[in-house]
Amino acid sequence: MTIKTEVNRHVDQLFRHESGKMVAVLTKVLGTANIDLAEDVVQDAIVEAINQWTYKGVPENPTGWIYNVAKFKALNFIKREKLGQKHSAELAHFIRSESVMEPVADHFFSEEEIADDQLRMMFTCCHSSISTDSQIALTLKTLCGFSIPEIANAFLTNEENINKRLVRARQHIRESKLSFELPFGTDFESRLNSVLETIFLLFNEGYNASEGEDAIRLELCEEAIRLTQLIADYPKIDQKNQVWALLSLMLLNTSRFKSRGNENDEIVELANQDRKLWDKGMIQKGIECLDKSIETNVISKYQILAAISAHHCTAAAYEDTDWESILSLYDNLMQIDDSPIILLNKAVAVSKVHGSAKAITELEKLGNNPLLQKYPYYYTTLAELNMELGEYQAALQFFEKSIAISRNQKEIRYLNDKIKYCKSVI
Length: 426
Prior knowledge:
Layout (H helix, E strand, L loop, with lengths): L2 H28 L4 H22 L5 H20 L1 H5 L10 H11 L2 H15 L6 H11 L5 H8 L3 H18 L8 H23 L3 E2 L5 H16 L7 H14 L25 H14 L7 H14 L8 H12 L5 H15 L1 H9 L5 H4 L2 H13 L3 H14 L1 E2 H17 L1
Parallel strand pairs: 1-2
Helix pairs in contact: 1-2, 1-3, 1-6, 2-3, 3-5, 7-9, 7-10, 8-9, 10-11, 10-12, 11-12, 12-13, 12-14, 13-14, 14-15, 15-16, 16-17, 17-19, 19-20, 20-21
């Protein structure tokens, strides 16, 4: 491994795991009107790390190094521009004396303050006055370290639209002078829903990566779990049934990661996975979180999805899967969320209970949905169902449609193998 490769690997890991924390703290330091400036400071620190580490080597504590660089860049900006006087009245003590700037900054960068600031950032980005799409885009960009192309892929849209959403969100925060605080009462509940939706989207991008070489991007899933655990552990939040349910869902799904690929780096379907590789400890923790989520009478979509995942995780073998209970859970879920993606996932359960032909009929009703027309798994599912019926020509056509819009290289290789098989039996 070359020095440049090692540096890039360290920097990429740091950016994924630490950039959101640094942006959150710097937003408090610089004021909510300057979220974009906070991002710029972090980006400058990342660039400086690449430049210096390439020649001097990676330091023993790379995280501490990059935090210090970001901190001093922010302090230098405050000294130079007197930002505290102009835009951040709540932090006016920063510029009273240079002698107190650094100790106060050290306090802001303490572990406890970082955790609190990440929560504040989550709820600021998901303010009810910001459109839902912009809320999610802003959170993914500032708190989760997503690039513009990654957010565009997650939204199944283009980069221009994402840039517009980010500009609108930041402009609204500046003009409305939104405070960097946790909400209370009914506002808290509505913004918590947006926060959890954002985290769920982050996890899904990791669970089924939309592009790149890896079918799974574990670091994104781990970040989603970390953010949800952060909310679950916060003592001032009482309404946690949805939080525990989402945490359960992510833990249960993550527990199966090691079995989703083989030694040849190929995708392994659920029916063929080695269940001995499943993380039993994570499954147990996921079930415990699910139990916590049902302590109240409030039912959420995350709770139902977690229950579906629990059925898969606790089945001794694929043949033992309780598909009838899973289908019943999907029927209940449809009363809460009847989105095309949920209908697509339900079709698999329909095929197991009522046959592949019935599932295909249900999916064909969704063929004109613009979202699914851009979603490779819609065509992959139709192809797999046709294969089960021996309709290999139809399956081939659907696999080809799927591969035409797929961007994940491992998924493309998987689809190519399916296409070759279909051609061999036609």
